[in-house]
């Protein structure tokens, strides 16, 4: 039976099962929950965006303050708005730190990437 490999990429010899930001997507930390599926997210490019949680994601998982997420900025108001497209688990965040994709300072609110 074939395996579902949609979340896998190959980096060198290592198979990566953790989705990484692609194209114009960025890492983000949820700063504040605003209600009705909206969150304020501090992004790795230094901007704070008001992001919405699409219905598909909203029904599947809870997103809380302090979670690491992938943000897809909108095409129109790319500096102010975006969509949350993925939430990382604690184990995945540890892997991102170990592989130096994000830093401890970014998680604590200090320096950006």
Q: Hey, roughly how much beta strand do the residues contain? A: 35-45%
Q: What is the global morphology?
A: globular
Radius of gyration: 14 Å
Number of strands: 7
What assembly state would you assign to the polypeptide chains in this entry?
single chain
> How much helix, percentage-wise, in residues?
10-25%
- Are there runs of 5+ residues with pLDDT below 50, and where? none
Main β-sheet description: 5 strands, mixed, barrel
Query: If helices are DSSP runs of H or I spanning 4 or more residues, what is the number of helices?
Result: 3
End-to-end Cα distance, whole Å, is 40 Å
Order of helices and strands: EEEEEHEEHH
Structural class: alpha+beta
* Overall pLDDT score: 86
| Major sheet strand order | 3-4-5-7-6
Organism: Thermococcus aggregans
InterPro entries: NA-bd_OB-fold, RNA-binding_domain_S1_IF1, TIF_eIF-1A, TIF_eIF-1A_CS
Protein name: Translation initiation factor 1A
Family: Belongs to the eIF-1A family.
What is this structure's SSE topology?
Elements: E1 9-11, E2 14-16, E3 26-35, E4 38-43, E5 48-52, H1 55-60, E6 68-73, E7 81-87, H2 90-98, H3 104-108
Parallel strand pairs: 5-7
Antiparallel strand pairs: 1-2, 3-4, 3-6, 4-5, 6-7
């Amino acid at each position: 039976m074939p395996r579902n490999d949609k979340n896998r990429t190959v980096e060198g010899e290592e198979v990566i099962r953790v989705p990484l930001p692609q194209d114009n997507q960025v890492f983000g930390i949820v700063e504040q929950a605003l209600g009705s599926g909206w969150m304020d997210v501090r992004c790795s490019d230094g901007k704070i965006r008001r992001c919405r949680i699409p219905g598909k994601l909203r029904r599947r998982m809870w997103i809380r303050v302090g979670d690491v997420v992938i943000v897809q900025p909108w095409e129109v108001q790319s500096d102010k708005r975006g969509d949350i497209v993925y939430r990382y688990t604690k184990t995945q965040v540890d892997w991102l730190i170990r592989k130096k994709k994000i830093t401890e300072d970014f998680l604590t609110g200090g320096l950006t990437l």
